[in-house]
Amino acid sequence: MGTVSHDAINQFKALMDQVEEPLKRAYQNVHQGYHAETLARFLKAREWNLIKAHKMLVDCLHWRVQNEIDNILTKPIIPADLYRAVRDSQLIGMSGYSREGLPVFAHGVGLSTFDKASVHYYVQSHIQINEYRDRIVLPTASKKYGRPITTCVKVLDMTGLKLSALNQIKLMTIISTIDDMNYPEKTNTYYIVNAPYIFSACWKVVKPLLQERTRKKVQVLSGNGRDELLKIMDAASLPHFCKREGSGSSRHSEYANENCFSLDHPFHQQLYNYIKQQSLVSEPTQPIKQGSVHVDLPEPAAEGTEIVKTIESEMHKFENGNGLSGSLDGLKINDNSDYRTTHCP
């Protein structure tokens, strides 16, 4: 980190020292004691423009206060079968750590259907995983390895990616915009595995639209990426869809506790139990409330909108050019979902 970077961070810190409650309290949950690393993340996200980075961070803190994000880890999604349905349709989990101590998060992009609950439950669950990562997982890793660990690596499984993914693109854009605006630069590297042709076609046109720092983070691996990923993590930390020899994947592993997407996996058990315990601590005499947490859903930035339009255009082009609409369909949102109609506020 050069002199300019240090100067920018010091100036940024001086500005943040001036914020008042409740923003100051919200900022403590963001930085977790790692001021320089947090300020550097927001500066990177705004190309080291101090004024823009400061506005971004203050906007993030206002978002946290207005939506009570600091309390979101006290709001379990109940009943448990609803949470299991969310986990089975929003495929994300933590499989272990890289050799450098960075948490490894796996995302089943191609097989996520987002069809078992309302948008608000999926957004709530995503933010809870972010907050648990930032407040529990990363500080614990930092203590274990004796140095600040403030980022993670992500392995994105494209198995099952189809044209019907367009049905989920709005929700996925909302979630990615929340991350871009409020959790910037939390991912060190994105590893893409099990990429079908349709991904390759989209990636070719989307890649030039991404900022250079983002492009550099993305690595598209051959097959299930097992051999390449073993260079940075032990076999035990591989996501379940990368453990088999050769390419290919599946939604379920032979053993439930090996499938890092499953509620039965140790990570999700720890996360869910933590949230339930925190709910009892915050309101020990009150029954746990049902219903989703409603968070203000952001409008995507211009860059994000352009990328979405490009993906949609390319996928429609692929559909029209190959005549695969019918055979590749099958992940449409089910508007008659029981949870959507009976459990959602």
3D architecture notes:
This protein is of the alpha/beta class. About 50% of the residues lie in helices and about 10% in strands. It folds into two domains: about 1-65, Helicase, Ruva Protein, domain 3; about 80-245 and about 255-280, 3-Layer(aba) Sandwich (Phosphatidylinositol Transfer Protein Sec14p). It has 14 helices and five strands. It is globular. Mean pLDDT is about 85; it is low at about 245-255 and about 325-345.
The strands making up the biggest β-sheet line up spatially as 1-2-3-4-5
Q: List unreliable stretches of 5+ residues.
A: 246-256, 323-345
- CATH second-level architecture of the largest domain: 3-Layer(aba) Sandwich
Oligomeric state of the chains in view: single chain
Fraction of residues in β-strands: 5-15%
How many strands appear in the DSSP assignment? 5
Largest sheet: 5 strands, mixed
Helix content, binned percent:
40-55%
CATH superfamily (homologous) name of the largest domain: CRAL-TRIO lipid binding domain
Radius of gyration: 20 Å
Secondary-structure-based class equals alpha/beta
Annotated CATH topology of the largest domain: Phosphatidylinositol Transfer Protein Sec14p
Supply the number of structural domains.
2
Mean pLDDT value: 86
Shape: globular
Number of helices: 14
CATH class of the largest domain: Alpha Beta
Helix/strand order, N-terminal first: HHHHHEEHEHEHHEHHHHH
- Termini separation comes to 48 Å
Pfam families: CRAL_TRIO, CRAL_TRIO_N
Region (Disordered): 321-345
Organism: Populus trichocarpa (Western balsam poplar)
Biased composition (Low complexity): 321-331
